[in-house]
């Protein structure tokens, strides 16, 4: 195995840049549980303004941010609608049910390709012991949907569906920065469509940790209590918030570079019939149904050559580009993938 590994498993594996480390080292801090950390307060105000909302709340993880937001809009024993591959029901180990008492129902997994009429038909009103629907959740970009971007027109239609049924609309915006860069939709345009949002600083932006819940001032005040109940109250956390502020100032527009690298990888694997969908952002989804290699065999062979990839299922895998993978590393990854797939 080569001494240096190229890690394309996720965009969460990045290391803080020297500038980010300097910002962390010099951050002004206080006790955030008391609301006295000025760097956290500044980050929360900045993110809220970016999306045109009144307030935001810093949380240690995207999963916690999502679950806080869902508890804000779905009471216990009521229902959330989302797609079958959504992060909130796939990778958060049943937290909506375990912590929020939330029931969930899903439409067939189609990633970013959502039919608002299908969603509308799923809404259950109050009455005769049915579990009433209270919110719809979407994921932008869509992780298991290959980094797909939900079109703005679709989101506007979902907003109409939510308004007509008097539902809340939540966005798991872990990689909404990538959607913003890919489609050029202003962040405030996304923000005005959603009642609550979660946005991540450690996926693509290079911060070591942290996500935020975004919403109205009233919701975020409630969110502080939910965060504390879930164990998310943090003290002198400005050292982490400083990394997030640095990431927002320096690492959003450069996501276009990651998208271009993903497009190169997609172009390289496409002739082998394993590209599941076109690479819209920084995720290259692989479908190995017609390949002699299953996902685990591909990952093992690639690792032996010095490349780490993520296995999502027996015949599905993904490649994710990020700021710690330069052009030379992409060249090496292309060489490794083409040699392994050609076997």
TrEMBL record:
Domain Aromatic amino acid beta-eliminating lyase/threonine aldolase: 7-284
N6-(pyridoxal phosphate)lysine carried by residues: 203
Name of this protein: Aminotransferase class I/II-fold pyridoxal phosphate-dependent enzyme
PANTHER family in the cross-refs: L-THREONINE ALDOLASE (PTHR48097:SF9), L-THREONINE ALDOLASE-RELATED (PTHR48097)
Signal peptide positions (record): none
Keyword annotations of the record: Aminotransferase, Lyase, Pyridoxal phosphate, Transferase
Xref: SUPFAM superfamilies: PLP-dependent transferases
GO cellular component: cytosol
InterPro entries: ArAA_b-elim_lyase/Thr_aldolase (IPR001597), Low_specificity_L-TA-like (IPR023603), PyrdxlP-dep_Trfase (IPR015424), PyrdxlP-dep_Trfase_major (IPR015421), PyrdxlP-dep_Trfase_small (IPR015422)
Keyword Hydrolase: no
Gene Ontology terms, MF aspect: L-allo-threonine aldolase activity; transaminase activity
Domain of life: Bacteria
GO biological process: glycine biosynthetic process; L-threonine catabolic process
Family statement drawn from the similarity comment of this UniProt entry: Belongs to the threonine aldolase family.
CC cofactor: pyridoxal 5'-phosphate
């Amino acid at each position: 195995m080569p001494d240096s590994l190229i890690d394309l498993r996720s965009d969460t594996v990045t290391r803080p840049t020297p500038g980010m480390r300097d910002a962390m080292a010099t951050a002004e801090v206080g006790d955030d549980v008391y609301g006295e950390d000025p760097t956290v307060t500044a980050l929360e105000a900045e993110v809220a303004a970016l999306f045109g909302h009144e307030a935001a709340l810093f949380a240690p993880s995207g999963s916690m941010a999502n679950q806080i937001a869902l508890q804000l809009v779905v009471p216990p024993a009521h229902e959330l609608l989302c797609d079958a591959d959504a992060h909130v029901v796939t990778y958060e180990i049943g937290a909506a049910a375990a912590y929020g008492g939330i029931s969930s129902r899903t439409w067939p997994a189609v990633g970013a390709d959502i039919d608002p009429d299908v969603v509308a038909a799923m809404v259950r009103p109050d009455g005769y012991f049915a579990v009433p629907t209270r919110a719809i959740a979407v994921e932008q970009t869509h992780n298991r949907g290959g980094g797909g971007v939900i079109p703005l027109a679709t989101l506007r239609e979902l907003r109409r569906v939510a308004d007509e049924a008097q539902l809340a609309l939540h966005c798991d915006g872990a990689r909404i920065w990538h959607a913003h860069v890919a489609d050029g939709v202003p962040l405030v345009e996304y923000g005005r469509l959603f009642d609550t949002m979660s946005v991540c600083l450690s996926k693509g932006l290079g911060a070591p940790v942290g996500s935020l819940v975004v919403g109205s001032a009233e919701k975020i005040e409630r969110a502080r209590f939910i965060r504390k109940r879930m164990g998310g109250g943090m003290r002198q956390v400005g050292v982490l918030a400083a990394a997030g502020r640095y990431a927002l100032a320096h690492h959003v527009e450069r996501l276009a570079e990651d998208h271009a690298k993903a497009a190169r990888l997609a172009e390289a694997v496409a002739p082998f019939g394993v590209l599941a969908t076109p690479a819209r952002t920084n995720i290259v989804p692989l479908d190995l149904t017609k390949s002699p290699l299953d996902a685990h065999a591909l990952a093992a062979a690639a690792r032996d050559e010095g490349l780490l990839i993520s296995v999502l299922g027996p015949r599905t895998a993904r490649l994710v580009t990020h700021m710690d993978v330069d052009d030379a590393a992409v060249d090496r990854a292309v060489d490794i993938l083409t040699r392994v797939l050609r076997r």
